Amino acid sequence: MTLFNLRKRDTADRMAVNPQAEALISDFSIEVMPRTADRVEDFRALLPEGTRVYIAHIDGTPIEEMVRTACRLNAEGFVVMPHFPARLIPDRATLADWIARYQGEADVRQALLLGGSGAHPAGEFHSSMQLMETGLFDKAGFTRLHVAGHPEGNRDIDPAGGTEVLDSALRWKQGFSERTAAEMAIVTQFMFEAGPLIAWAEALQKAAITLPVHVGIAGPARLQTLIRYAISCGVGASLKVLQKRARDVTKLVLPYEPTEVVTELAAYKAANPDSNIVSLHFFPLGGIAQNASWAIAHGGTSVRPRSADSDGRA
Known about the structure:
Blueprint: H1 3-7, H2 11-16, H3 19-25, E1 29-32, H4 34-37, E2 52-55, H5 63-75, E3 79-85, H6 92-106, E4 110-114, H7 128-133, H8 136-139, E5 144-149, H9 164-178, E6 183-188, H10 194-206, E7 213-218, H11 223-232, H12 239-246, H13 249-252, H14 259-271, E8 277-283, H15 288-297
Helix pairs in contact: 3-14, 5-6, 11-12
């Protein structure tokens, strides 16, 4: 199926789209890994032109595979945003080399900076703030830097279960955003409940953290798959939504779809247009084709120019 055919839905299908959800989902982003990207014949058959595609850098993935995937996505017409996980980068020279490769070979000007997983850093970096402090992204002219958000906390960062370290880091990143030319935003870990995410976003605004929030959403997938990923990724409070669903035999055999959480977030955004919640970022845990099809069916069809510094909302 071509992108043209995906977009050419009939009038009845268009009318079925929730306009509030469409407003939030229209310029969605999505995440891939090199090994999953290799199984996609042509991303143009799956995603709207100009979709921002994050490339997840998993421990053990050679930089050559990351750059090759970035080159391909750029050539097919997408905005490329690779991960830069601090704990996988041994030193400043390696960071500079990665930036140069992405720019020189794939014309990359955007990055997601995060601490990354693993108890033992590969070298001198262990946080995204250290990556920012090198000044290398600013020197290279990166137009957009995104950072990670953890609405339900992260015990790797705050072992006691609180949010003190996370909150302090976001305040620092807010300050950094005010002294850098790059557009910045927060992209969150995926969740299955709208309430905790909304409360967290409101708390950020009260704390004068005005960075736009791109909400992480788990795409359609088998329930067992989602529970496995949720446990491994430390998604805590909203996991009970999946566990409750698993107790319903009639739902256990059906794929999970994020319709309910997206509808609630969209209704909140419509009622609170000044909210810092601006967009959705999909984790295609059940497969990129299935996720892309769901997103497009619910209104994700707008085009983001590759050359634009800003997507107009973040």
